[in-house]
Amino acid sequence: AGPCDIYSSGGTPCVAAHSTTRALYSAYSGPLYQVKRGSDGGTRDISPLSAGGVADAAAQDSFCSGTTCLITVIYDQSGHNSHLTQAPPGGAASGGDVGGYDFPVTAIGAPVTLNGQKAYGVFISPGTGYRNNEANGTAVGDEAEGMYAVFDGTHYNGGCCFDYGNAETNNMDNGDGRMETIYFGLGTGYGVGGGSGPWVLADLENGLYTDSKVSVNPNNPSITSRFVTAVVKGNTNNQWAVRGGDSVSGSLSTYYSGIRPTNGDYNPMQKEGAIILGIGGDNSNWAQGTFYEGVMTTGYPSDDTENQVQADIVAAKYAVTAMNSGPELTVGSTITLRATTSCCTTRYLAHTGDAVNTQEVSSSSSTALQQQASWVVRTGLGNSACYSFESVDTPGSFIRHSNFQLYVNSNDGSKLFGEDATYCTQAGLNGQGSSIRSWNYPAHYIRHFNALGYAASNGGPKEFESATLFNDDVSWVAGSGFS
Ligand code: AHR
Ligand code: AHR
What we know:
With 483 residues, this protein is mainly β. 9% of the residues lie in helices and 36% in strands. It has helices at 3-9, 57-63, 303-316, 367-372, 415-420, 470-473; strands at 14-19, 33-37, 43-46, 69-74, 85-86, 105-106, 110-114, 117-124, 130-132, 145-152, 163-167, 180-185, 192-193, 199-203, 208-209, 216-217, 227-235, 239-246, 253-258, 274-277, 289-297, 318-320, 334-339, 347-352, 355-360, 375-379, 387-391, 397-402, 405-410, 423-427, 434-438, 445-449, 452-456, 476-479. The strands form 9 sheets. Strands 1, 7, 8, 10, 17, 18, 19, 21 and 22 form a 9-stranded antiparallel β-sheet that branches. β30 and β31 form a beta hairpin. It is elongated. The protein binds alpha-L-arabinofuranose (AHR) (2 copies). One alpha-L-arabinofuranose (AHR) binds next to β28 and α5.
């Protein structure tokens, strides 16, 4: 049985079921998600390999070969047609895409395996997010509902708000109690858990909570596991609960079960029934996190039902897999990165002061210029499965993006710096060498444009994101010197 079969048996069936990694009903064989590729704008639905099974990641890989792909739809498996698509602009923020919509995510940001089979999660960067304002069957008002989601316990920030669940239908902050979602991250000043985070909390609108107070709930631990099962459920009559556990082993713990927060207007709840993923109710879109699967139910699931769902998640055997593919780089080695666009095949990725650029370099160039165009491959500062590139002539400084331009900056040791300086490799999109994508914004690749370095998406709104020559501009041949 899948998670939604278990909820049905418990008398609290799923009214929404979203996952890019697997079917959540044992009989489900329909589409899990849709990808759209950069080369021709074509779309393709990705379905499970078999009913109840893991997503057909190979179908995505072949459809997206030699180009980029975005996740444009996350289908609702429950039959309620509550599919998730790009989130529209809201009261707090507009996204950067056409019409103020948030960007969709790249389809390759979060590779994992389930029982040894490859699948892709939804890697939310700031500025990306999904929503459905016309969901069917979700709880409204003070009706009862349950929710769980599986997240990456190592991908989070303190920006508002990495949420999955029930929110306003008009993208506005309509007041306390208008939302009931799972939240994962560093919290922002309301209720928090023990230690320094990240935590599984609930976003109930105008606040992230873990119990009935605005204070520390020591029973809600900082999450340290790579995969985390997060549970929030809300009952009628001033009762709710927050639970969590390691998705790979063990059971769920109850972090809180009791009355609603007493500091605001949370009883009765005034849920509106839209569904959000990766954003706040008012489209606050500054959060990051990774979603693999999640559901919403009707009725208040029992702890026992949720414990059975957790056992099913454990049996799905989520595991990490390689983030890099294509030509291998060796940590500790010094490399050069030669451009492959026809204009520029004797130019190398280099820097002048802070600015990353491309420059003509050859074996007869000065030592100083050769060093400006040489990089030591390091283990990724923000994720050890990827790489960072340390400047040879400025040790301690690394290639990082800021406002999507590339710089060589000194490592200040911050979480943001490490993440801005972390890049994962794949076979070059034009068939030559490697393409090098940002870890924290994986739709964005190291690109040269007018001889400057950027973290560019394919066909994005900025001038340096032009689709023209994109594949060439993001393909680099790694070598050990200059010709
Ligand atoms: O409750 C936290 C956030 O506050 C909500 O997600 C958002 O709608 C508001 O800005
Ligand atoms: O480059 C995109 C973002 O811009 C970086 O993550 C951040 O450092 C800056 O605000």
